[in-house]
UniProtKB/TrEMBL annotation:
GO terms for cellular component: cytosol; peroxisome. It catalyses: (R)-5-diphosphomevalonate + ATP = isopentenyl diphosphate + ADP + phosphate + CO2. Belongs to the diphosphomevalonate decarboxylase family. Residues 200-354 form the Mvd1 C-terminal domain. GO terms for biological process: isopentenyl diphosphate biosynthetic process, mevalonate pathway; sterol biosynthetic process. It comes from Hevea brasiliensis (Para rubber tree). Its EC number is 4.1.1.33. It comes from the Eukaryota. It is found in: Peroxisome. The chain holds residues 2 to 355 of 417 of the full protein. GO terms for molecular function: ATP binding; diphosphomevalonate decarboxylase activity. This is Diphosphomevalonate decarboxylase. Performs the first committed step in the biosynthesis of isoprene-containing compounds such as sterols and terpenoids. Residues 13-186 form the Diphosphomevalonate decarboxylase-like N-terminal domain. Keywords: ATP-binding, Lipid biosynthesis, Lipid metabolism, Lyase, Nucleotide-binding, Peroxisome, Steroid biosynthesis, Steroid metabolism, Sterol biosynthesis, Sterol metabolism.
Amino acid sequence: AETWVRMVTAQTPTNIAVIKYWGKRDETLILPVNDSISVTLDPAHLCTTTTVAVSPSFVQDRMWLNGKEISLSGGRYQNCLREIRARACDVEDKERGIKISKKDWEKLYVHIASYNNFPTAAGLASSAAGFACLVFALAKLMNAKEDNSELSAIARQGSGSACRSLFGGFVKWKMGKVEDGSDSLAVQVVDEKHWDDLVIIIAVVSSRQKETSSTTGMRETVETSLLLQHRAKEIVPKRIVQMEESIKNRNFASFAHLTCADSNQFHAVCMDTCPPIFYMNDTSHRIISCAEKWNRSEGTPQVAYTFDAGPGPNAVLIARNRQAAARLLQKLLFYFPPNSDTELNSYVLGDKSI
Ligand code: PMV
C-alpha cells in the first residue's frame, strides 16, 4: 500500500470583540443578529497551533486537542470538515512526490492535532482561535482556493467568533442578509500595523468555567430579552459605523467610549435575559470602577475595558500606549496584589497586541 503523509501547520491568534456578537438568528448556520468588530491578538500570545495531516493509511478522521483525543462527531466539526472537503482541489506536492486529485479527497481521511499556547486552566476562550486555525490549515492542506473572507464563513459554522480570527488587526463580522449564510463573513477593517500603540492586557479574574455556555445563553437572550431587540436594531448598527471611524482615525477617546459602552450593554442584555445571566463578578466590577475613575481623573481616556461571556469574568484592558499600560499594571498590582483574596490570578500581557 502507498505510505505517504502530507502535513500542514498553521497558527491563529484569538480575538476580542469590541462591539459584541450576542444572539443568533440561525443556530445551525450560526448567523448573528448584529454585526460585530474585534481586535486580533498578537500570535505570540493566546494562539492555537494546528497541524493537519492526510495519508492513505488513515481510516477515519481523528483529532487531538492539547494531546488528548477528542470526538469529531459534533455538528460543528462535521460542518467545517464537509465545507472544506467540498472545496478541495488537486494537489501536487513535488517535494514529497505526492499527487492528490480532487476526486481522491472524497476517500481520504485527516488527522488533526491542535495546541493552545496558553493554559486551558487560565480560563480564556479558545474556540475562536481553534476553529479559525482548523479551517485555515485544512484549506491549505486541500489546496482550496477560497480567500480568507470566504474561509471565515466556514469557520463561523464552527464557532461564530472564529470567523474574525482569519485576519489580523481590527476585523468586522458582517451579519449578512441571505438565508444560506454565504454573506455572513469577516472582513479586515485595518491591519495589525495601523494602530500599534495599543497594548492589550488580560487580567485573569477567575479561571472557573462559565456556568452558561454562549450557545445556551444566546438562545435564552434571543427568546426573552426585549433589550436585545433594541440593541440589535437601533444601537449596534450606529455603533459599528462609529467604531470603524474611531479605528480608522486612531481616535482613542471615541474607541474607549464605544468599547466600554458596548461591553456594558452586552452584560445588561445578559441581565435582561430570563433567567438572568451573570458573567461578571465583584472583581470585574471593581476593575470597571478603577478604569472609569482613572479615565475621568486624567481628563482623557487611558484605558478601555471589555468583558466576555467567559469562561471566567476576565477583564480585557486596552491601554492607549505603553506608558498607559505600565501605569495600569501598577494600579492593578496595587488594588489587586498577587496572592490576596481579591481573586485576580494573573496578568497576561498581550504586548503590542495590535
Ligand atoms: O463564538 P462564541 O459562541 O464563543 O460567542 C462569543 C460571544 C462573545 O465572546 C461574548 C462576544 C464576541 O463577539 O466574541
